[in-house]
Amino acid sequence: MPPGVKEGDPAPPFSLPATGGRTVSLEAMKGKPFVLYFYPKADTPGCTTEACAFNEALTQFKGLGLEVIGVSPDKMPAIEKFAQKYGLDFPLASDPENATAQAYGAWGEKVFMGRRSIGLIRSTFLIDKDGRIARAWKKVKVDGHAAEVLEAARAL
Q: Which one of 18, 24, 36, 47 is the catalytic residue?
């Protein structure tokens, strides 16, 4: 795993601007379990598939008392456009300095089509009501991922 958090660790604090003029933060989520997922770029095929899968499962997540928050390094105008285009009903946050991604270990070296680069590593964290990392998925494969996170959330 890249540096960052592992299961059982306290979730690193964050406060980020999000869609709909909101701010999302660890402090605001205190006492509530939630899903925090990092995606590389708004309105790209993999990120769209992942966001739409979380959106389709949102009622089930909320039924378990969980919120879903997506985070990317994109600036807010691109994120707002992405959320509106696909009717995403959960907050998408902007982390342009990658500070939150780095704190969670979702920023670092990655390989895409044989080329190495530094960037956002698609990652998801299930954070329990006590603010601890209950589950961590690094280097996520999009297909079936939202369902896998939902299954883990049911075990909280």
A: 47
Phi and psi at residue 77, to the nearest 5°: -55, -40
Q: How much of the chain exceeds pLDDT 90, in percent?
A: 91
pTM assigned to the model: 0.95
- In terms of Cβ atoms closer than 10 Å to its own Cβ (0-12, 13-18, 19+), residue 77 is exposed
Q: Are 73 and 120 in contact (CB under 8 A)?
A: yes
User: What's the angle, vertex CA 89, arms to CA 83 and CA 92, rounded to 5?
Assistant: 50
Amino acid at 77: P
Whether 116 and 110 have beta carbons less than 8 Å apart is answered as: yes
- Is 52 part of the annotated catalytic residue set? no
Q: What is the mean pLDDT of the chain?
A: 95
d(CA 80, CA 122): 20
pLDDT grade for 156, boundaries at 50, 70 and 90? confident
* The residue to which tokens 């790209």 are assigned: 44
Contact assessment for residue 133 and residue 152, using Cβ atoms and an 8 Å cutoff = no
